[in-house]
DNA sequence: GCTGCGGTCCCCCATAAGATAGAGACTCGG
DNA sequence: CCGAGTCTCTATCTTATGGGGGACCGCAGC
């Protein structure tokens, strides 16, 4: 406990499952070169704790109550552009991956990653080196070239996914049925689907919507 | 380490995420009255390790590679009707819950449960007392009274969820389009949906299909 | 200025989907 | 043996959906 000890990598964990936090905390704290300094159970807590502790690395789950992972990434990087964020989630849709990485997250891993990979990802990210597993990188590349949906189209897509009819969608968005159809057509074209139900399936697979 | 130690509750963990296994293992092994004797990363391993160790409790995730949780519950209880299985998952669809409990799982918890609840659930199940959190129980009750789908309807539903047209479904199942429509109509009625897309949304929410 | 893009609106038209009703064959359990 | 449930098929009718266009406006950027 003296001169030999280099400064440890200070880690914040953000995940809404206590079990996962425990697992990560146990893994991290067993390492000589890193330690968990705080744990958050939802998005807002994650942001607040980041402010308070200014950790070297934040390990973040994508799906959390109050504010989802992408929003947390955005907000934290807005406040601290040099923040090192490692996404750790079960979602492997190309849209989620693309959003996080293009917004500046330094790494992205899936929860089924082995222990060693998780630890090396944390070390890499702490040194500002990006870390992305090969499968995840492949997904991110898939996303390249695919057309992206406008906000309005995403609004419509969400309603389509809930099973609403064009007429119903029009009513809810205060537009005409014709316009709703126009948006739906655009969605079908961009997602390369021939029916709305297929569009929902594709969108779900890609992570454009979370049912 | 002598006469005072009652026999510990022997636990097997089955989950495809190393992180979650670590978390649970850490929690369990910290307790004086229980210990983890084995960990499985997929369904088949879970069954094999149950055979090998005959634990007092098996903590089981529902979504796993090779064989899903429901199938594991079925198989293990077929071999050992007195097995005590605690489901621990993120899925809260009433169908999953209903299937597991009616097949004889002794408990069902969600992964966002606090540590204490998880530990008391393991203790309860180890003494053959059923444990189900109130939210989960509420879901199970919701399922009561709702009509269940026939196998054929589930086949059709799966294809509908993939975005197939009636004609396409008919071709794949070697039936006429009219018959496909009959099945779809039955599905809509049972799920209380107006359109196929809504049916998919409802079915997904209830856990009848996993996209 | 002009251009591109996004959002809104409109047309026509072919097809898919959903609602309704009836009916034969099969299995299973009372 | 008979009824209940399931799966299959039939036919008709109405409505919703999707494909193909074209058009206008407002706004940001070159």
Q: What key attributes describe this structure?
A:
alpha/beta, 10 helices, homodimer, elongated, 2 domains, DNA-binding, 211 residues
Task: Describe the model.
- The structure is a homodimer of 211-residue chains.
- Chain A has 211 residues and is of the alpha/beta class.
- Chain A has 2 domains: 9-143, Rossmann fold; 151-206, Winged helix-like DNA-binding domain superfamily/Winged helix DNA-binding domain (Arc Repressor Mutant, subunit A).
- Chain A has 10 helices and 6 strands, in the order βαβαβαβαβαβααααα.
- Chain A has helices spanning 18-30, 43-53, 69-79, 94-103, 115-126, 134-143, 151-161, 166-173, 177-191, 196-206; strands spanning 9-14, 34-40, 57-60, 85-89, 107-110, 131-132.
- In chain A, strands 2-1-3-4-5-6 form a 6-stranded parallel sheet, with helices on both faces.
- In chain A, helix 5 links the parallel strand 5 (107-110) and strand 6.
- In chain A, helix 3 runs parallel beside helix 4 (94-103).
- Chain A starts with 8 loop residues before the first strand and ends in a 5-residue tail after the last helix.
- The model of chain A has no long low-confidence stretch (mean pLDDT 93).
- At the A-B interface, helix 1 and helix 10 of A face helix 1 and helix 10 of B.
- Chain B binds a DNA duplex (30 and 30 nucleotides) through residues 150-153, 165-167, 175-179, 181-185, 188, 194-196.
